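HUMAN:
Could you generate one sequence with tokenized structure?
ASSISTANT:
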Amino acid sequence: MKAKRITIVSFAALFACLPFVWANAQEKQYPQPEPMKPEMSEYWTPQPKVVTPGNATTNAAMTAPSDAIVLFDGKDLSQWKSDKGDAKWIVHDGVVTVDKKAGDILTKQEFGDFQLHIEWQVPENITGESQARGNSGIFLQDKYEVQVLDSYGNETYVNGQAASIYKQSPPLVNAMRKPGEWNVYDIIYTAPTFTKDGRYRTYPTVTVIHNGVLVQNNTVIIGTTEYIGFPKVIPHGKGSIRLQSHGDPSLPISFRNIWIREL
């Protein structure tokens, strides 16, 4: 009888202590992550080797193949919209020039796997340095950015120079033409697939040919291309092609001859 009483008292004492233990566990504070800054996801070395692209007829655009969807033929922006309605960039002389006050433009049609051809020109009298020099971007499925920037004699963090997968993968080489000449991107993109719980089943991949030079070779994209912070996995279906109206103070760039082939 005495042994039984001791056991009961011991359990009673244990249960009496539980609220105190639980309260202490709830109140315990752990260190929080430091706030992210843009510089935390930038790196500058090694700088890609500079390669001079082959000569091309700089005033003549490559015609689209017969099975392509022509997104811009030099006449109008009927295939494009903005986040707030109609696309408002400036169409002139067969090209479209970024209007920085009008915001981004994106295709009305959405795409999965594709081959994209797009030509872009940095103004001959461009000024500025690093990211503030002809900055724009081409967002694949409105999620993953192939950087557009004047990287001709203009150093910046290498995962943010022209033809990088922004803040992820630098180009294999720097194939920029000098300001005033037309650059050409041919982009082959495979869209991701997702598991039921929102992870990548297969990652998005991209190959980029810049002025005839391979600069991204079936590169795996590990998530969204963030300016601040690291890539995120956001499940999605088909998406638009977005052209960025960047807020840098340099002169705006121009685009021409944009077409896409669904794969």
